Amino acid sequence: MAELRQRMTQKMAQKLSPQQIQLMKLLQVPTYALEQRIQEELEANPALEEDHDKTNEEFAETESSDTDDTYELDDYLEEYMEEDPSSYRYQQQGSSMDESDRRRLAVFEKTFHDFLIQQLRMQNITDPRRRLVAEQIIGSIDDDGYLRREPMSIMDDLMFSQNVNTTEEEILELLEVIQRFEPAGVGARDLQECLQIQLDLMRSADQYEEDEATELAHVIISNYFDAFSKKHYEKLMKHLEISSDELKAAMDVILHLNPKPASAFSSGNNRSEQYIVPDFIIQNRDGELVLSLNGINAPELHINNQYQQMLRTYKDHKKYDSAPGRKQKEAIVFIKNKIDTARWFIDAIRQRQQTMYKTMYAIMQYQYDFFVSGDESKLKPMILKDIAEVTGLDISTISRVASAKYVQTEFGTRRLKDFFSESMQKQNGEEVSTLEIKHLLGQIVDSENKRKPLSDQKLMQALKEKGYEVARRTVAKYREQLNIPVARLRKEL
Question: Which CATH architecture fits 422-489?
Answer without folding.
Answer: Orthogonal Bundle (1.10)
